[in-house]
Amino acid sequence: MAIVNLKIEGWLEGVVDWYIKNGFATSKTEVLRMGLIKLGEDRERLGGFIAKNANRDIWENKKEDAIWDKY
Questions:
Q1: Which of 12, 28, 38, 65 has the most CB atoms lying inside 10 A of its own CB?
Q2: How far is residue 10's CA from residue 5's CA, in Å, rounded to a whole number?
């Protein structure tokens, strides 16, 4: 397991403190872990969306279909 030393300042520190103050997390580490999990989930969802919709504009383009019919 890697140990990371991270300095958070400014508005990011305020965000972390807000999550703790409002009971969404018990520590700064937990807030950061929650954020990383959310980023990972977003990346997975985005990757699936891209894979599912890759080249959709080409395959659903009627003009493109007409061009292929000529060959």
A1: 28
A2: 17
Return left, alpha or beta for 7; rule: phi > 0 is left, psi -120 to 50 is alpha, else beta: beta
Q: What is the pLDDT of residues 3-62, one digit of tens each?
A: 888 899 999 999 999 999 999 999 999 999 999 999 999 888 888 877 777 766 655 666
Q: Compute CA 33 distance to the chain's CA centroid, rounded to the nearest angstrom.
A: 14
Q: Structure tokens of 12?
A: 């990011």
Q: What is the pTM of this model?
A: 0.63
Domain ranges of the chain: 10-69
User: Residue 57's Cα: distance from chain center in Å?
Assistant: 23
